[in-house]
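INFO batch 0412 | record 1 of 1 | parsing
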Amino acid sequence: MKFIDEARIEVLGGHGGNGCASFRREKFIPKGGPDGGDGGRGGSVWGVADRNINTLIDYRYARRHAASNGEHGRGADCYGAGGKDLELRFPVGTVVTDDETGALIADFDHHGQRLLLAKGGIGGLGNLHFKSSTNRAPRQFTRGEEGEQRRLRLELRVLADVGLLGMPNAGKSTLIAAVSNARPKIADYPFTTLHPNLGTVRTGDGRGFVIADIPGLVEGAAEGVGLGHQFLRHLARTRLLLHLVDAAPVDGAIDPAAQVRALVAELKKYDASLARKPRWLVLTKCDAIPPEARTSLVATMRRRLRTKAPIHAISAVSGEGARELMRDVQKFLEEDATQAAASRGDAVASGA
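INFO prediction complete | emitting tokens
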């Protein structure tokens, strides 16, 4: 199935039915009084998160989604039936915003979450509501309200704990294939990855995490070079970024440290909060480097980049250092979760 992570749709709540102005007429009861019923409410449009869906392709071509209208009221105290609600199912991780104002409407971050997207109109009142001791034959009734109408923008942000970041051919797809159950396309030319890939890493004893691989980012992406910033949104929910760098580029003139700085600059152009996420440097393809040179390479990169973040030297092809990296990532995620839980507990305690 084609991967679609962005779409624009229009949702319309159903109109409420009109109230009825009617009078009771039976044999021997010529003036039976008002008996007009109310109109039914219009159906509403709801969004539901579904973990069995992983693309927005259903909404790329079907753009208009309308709930049914309520029925009009009738005589003999008959109320109109309410319109049926319409449910739209989205992948978990879909963010819904108003296409005109940009306001956030819904963030579907867990399976089964159900949120209102467009409310149906209220049904009108029949004339039986307007009778009184001084108004025995009311002819008033009200019309049903129109349903809410919205133009929405759907944006899918995959749910992953760890995101892989790097230039094209940095070895991201090779790494995710080596350590997880993902099987992305791997080839010896740039931009073999055209859409995000998700994989589950198992570190033993029932522990594990989800890792995401996105297409390579190049210098000038903010101006649309390569695939631009199109897929960086998928890293927004991650807790850790692994920045992969080719430690043994075929072109000897390529400077790995300069590549790191260029990519960090592109991150800042896209989203400063994304650039502030914890980010580890991973030097890939180290099987092409003599073992004695790897330690000095790590020290050189740390000195040139002036970073205290962890730096790992691995080879996804031979597996050297890859499993150790995954165990360190698992440890970081568990410690981060513990700290987050403690912070929430402190906040609750201070609020009490």
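INFO post-check: The helical segments are 58-61, 172-179, 256-270, 272-275, 291-305, 322-351.
INFO record closed
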